[in-house]
């Protein structure tokens, strides 16, 4: 018996998720709602020992009308946990040479999709809905049944002071102004 490969169910419509989970537009793209901010604080080794919550968590949703985030970095590590849908994550680890990898968060573990994704400290990341999934959204009602809902847990907890958006100049410096990867990813930097 061969493994099942069709895992395309999308149980909760986007309109219901936005309404019931009280999601708002996120500055990185998509929608979000903070679900927890631990009261206990710890010195963050990634922010000069500044005190940060032990952890924070959010729901994060990409939809056909908000299909991608922009490239950004957290000083803290971030664990992404899938609830429903699929999204491709592009991760850029600085170095010489920089490492660019793509991972798909989705339910089809037989095709290499992952249910959890750890993004370590100091790694640039962005997420987007897959082109083949967006091609399936021809009507408003089908738009409501495609997307990706995850939980993100940041540890030590999220603080805007520990966050950065990648600029076009920063992307060109990181990957090389003439690189095909820089040209491809340039549409995902914050304007």
Automatic annotation (TrEMBL):
Residues 16-165 form the DUF985 domain. InterPro entries: Cupin_DUF985, RmlC-like_jellyroll, RmlC_Cupin_sf, YML079W-like. CDD domains: cupin_YML079wp. This is DUF985 domain-containing protein. It comes from Lentinus tigrinus ALCF2SS1-6. The lineage of its organism: Eukaryota, Fungi, Dikarya, Basidiomycota, Agaricomycotina.
């Amino acid at each position: 018996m061969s493994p099942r490969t069709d895992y395309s169910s999308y149980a909760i419509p986007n309109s219901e998720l936005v309404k019931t989970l009280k999601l708002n537009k996120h500055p990185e793209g998509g929608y979000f709602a903070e679900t927890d901010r631990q009261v206990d604080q710890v010195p963050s080794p990634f922010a000069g020992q500044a005190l940060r919550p032990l952890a924070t968590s959010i729901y994060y949703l990409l939809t056909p009308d908000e299909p991608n985030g922009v490239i950004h970095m957290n000083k803290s590590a971030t664990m992404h946990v899938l609830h429903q849908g699929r999204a491709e994550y592009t991760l850029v680890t600085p170095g010489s040479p920089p490492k660019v990898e793509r991972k798909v968060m989705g339910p089809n573990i037989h095709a290499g999709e992952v249910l959890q994704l750890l993004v370590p400290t100091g790694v640039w990341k962005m997420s987007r809905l897959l082109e083949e999934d967006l091609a399936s959204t021809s009507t408003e009602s089908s738009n409501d049944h495609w997307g990706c809902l995850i939980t993100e847990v940041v540890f030590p907890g999220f603080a805007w002071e520990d966050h950065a958006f990648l600029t076009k100049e920063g992307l060109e410096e990181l990957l090389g102004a003439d690189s095909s990867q820089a040209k491809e990813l340039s549409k995902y930097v914050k304007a």
